[in-house]
Design brief:
It holds the Pfam family PepSY_like. The chain contains three helices and eight strands, in the order ααββββαββββ. The chain is of the alpha+beta class and about 150 residues long. The protein has two domains: about 70 residues, Nuclear Transport Factor 2, Chain: A; about 70 residues, Nuclear Transport Factor 2, Chain: A, CATH 3.10.450. The protein has an eight-stranded antiparallel sheet with strand order 1-2-3-4-5-6-7-8. The relative contact order is 0.13.
């Protein structure tokens, strides 16, 4: 309940230029919740049965979009193949997200966790299946934010 109250209170303070930029990109979005994270305004909503987070900076410039696709079936085949051939494929698949940017190539983030453990990893792949980086996020919680891609 407190989360809903704070989200709706924040929505009243959302700068009009950010709201307008979002509505231009996603005019069909409904039930949008806003929050501030990592110096950005983040719109969270569900579309086509996917959770989507759209990030804007304070100047209403689009920073990135995070699509939670939850399955390897929805990522480029080279990414799914590279992951399945890696040692990490023996871990429990926790989440799959496609991150798009205005000026950088798409990144696919696959999050896995060691069975019967709190150990979690994020694997960052380019669309052609090349592993860009691997992060141990066991103590970080696995949040995705723009600073991970600088």
């Amino acid at each position: 309940m407190l989360l809903l109250v704070s989200a709706s209170a924040f929505a009243k303070e959302l700068p009009a230029k950010i709201q307008a930029a979002f509505e231009k990109m996603y005019p069909q979005a409904v039930n949008v919740e806003w929050e501030q994270m990592a110096g950005c305004y983040v719109a969270e909503f569900v579309m086509d049965n996917r959770e989507i987070d759209v990030w804007f900076d304070e100047n209403a410039q689009w920073v990135m979009t995070e699509n939670d696709v939850e399955s390897l079936e929805k990522v480029p085949a080279p990414v799914a193949e590279a992951f399945m051939e890696s040692i990490m494929s023996s871990m429990r698949l926790k989440d799959v997200r496609i991150i798009t940017f205005p000026k950088h190539p798409t990144i696919i983030v696959i999050e896995v966790e060691v069975y019967n453990s709190n150990e979690e990893f994020q694997l960052f792949y380019s669309s052609d299946g090349k592993l860009q980086q691997q992060l141990n996020v066991s103590e970080l919680g696995g949040e995705i934010y723009p600073g991970l891609f600088d």
